[in-house]
Design brief:
Length: 318
């Protein structure tokens, strides 16, 4: 497969997944903003969301002060930067358009329809009144894209690069969402996450719902929601679809199909990161410090993405 074609497929998948995960992250803040909290804690929550997406500086350059409405507009609708939901959906569609001949008609039409419908979905009054409705629509379109892709594409290199992009992006974003939530819990309680606080249940329930894991948590643990168990579920459970371990499993599997060489350096790097998660203990992770662990994990995911780009895709311009 031509590296340029692989590049478009890989980034098409990453952008649609990124749009979904940005919607999930913003929806967490919208939900937690409804709970009793100080103005300082609320602002810290919104700033953490900007910071984990590396948008704090760009936001501050555009706005004199932070308001929830401005953050929502900036991260969802503002097309002046590449990380907003609108920009991600546009980029996913443009990458799909560049490789229409490689995609099935159903996959192309799904991406194209998503882009065309987005403007109606972001109607000023509707978005301002109920942003969660828009975020649900984004998640639905992302689900539809993945389902149509897996259900209609030939299982060849094209599909492997699409799934590689999807799960690499998912690992990155699950780590970011989890990191944001632990910061938010600290801001609310003034203590480390996990100390007695009546609001804890609502905050941890919010993050579980943000990654479609609330019902799964109840099925697995059948007990009170605790920060350690939330972290364990979203990081180390191989059968939790959006966990870090499940995402890295898919990355390694699809990367091995692309390389065809078990001794490939990029595959070995991904395999090492996967093994560290597979054999990790949540107690050891929390003892080390969750924020430090996730920061290092995100650095490794960034490096893995760079390695994949250098070896298989169109190299970034120097």
């Amino acid at each position: 497969m031509l590296s340029r074609t692989a590049d478009h497929l890989f980034w098409m998948a990453r952008y649609i997944e990124r749009a979904e995960n940005t919607a999930r992250m913003l929806d967490v803040n919208v939900q937690t903003a409804l709970l009793p909290q100080s103005a300082r804690a609320a602002e810290q929550g919104w700033r953490a969301t900007l910071g984990i997406s590396e948008l704090q500086e760009a936001f501050d350059q555009k706005y004199e002060k932070l308001t929830p409405g401005d953050v929502l507009h900036f991260m969802a609708r503002d097309m002046s930067h590449s990380s907003s939901i609108a920009s991600c959906l546009r980029s996913a569609r443009e990458n799909a358009r560049a490789v229409r001949g490689t995609l099935t008609t159903e996959v192309w039409e799904t991406h194209n329809t998503t882009w065309l419908e987005m403007h109606n979905q972001m109607n000023e009054t509707d978005f301002e009144h109920d942003p969660s409705q828009f975020f649900e629509w984004v998640k639905h379109r992302s689900h539809l894209s993945r389902g149509v892709t897996f259900g209609t594409m030939l299982q060849d290199e094209a599909l492997f690069f699409i799934r590689l992009g999807t799960f690499l992006e998912r690992a990155d974003n699950t780590a970011r969402i989890l990191d944001v939530k632990f910061h938010g819990a600290s801001a609310q309680s003034g203590e480390k996450p996990g100390h007695d606080n009546q609001l804890d249940f609502y905050y941890w329930a919010a993050i579980l719902r943000s990654v479609s894991a609330f019902e799964i948590y109840r099925k697995v643990y059948r007990d009170a929601i605790t920060p350690a168990r939330v972290a364990d579920l979203l990081m180390l459970k191989p059968d939790m679809p959006r966990s870090l371990l499940a995402s890295l499993t898919e990355v390694v599997n699809n990367l091995s199909m692309v390389t065809g060489d078990p001794h490939n350096d990029t595959l070995r790097f991904a395999g090492k990161l996967h093994a560290e998660l597979k054999f990790a203990s949540i107690n050891d992770v929390l003892q080390e410090g969750l924020h430090d662990y996730l920061t290092e994990f995100l650095e490794h995911i960034y490096e893995l993405g760079n390695r994949i780009s250098r070896e298989f895709l169109v190299p970034l311009a120097a």
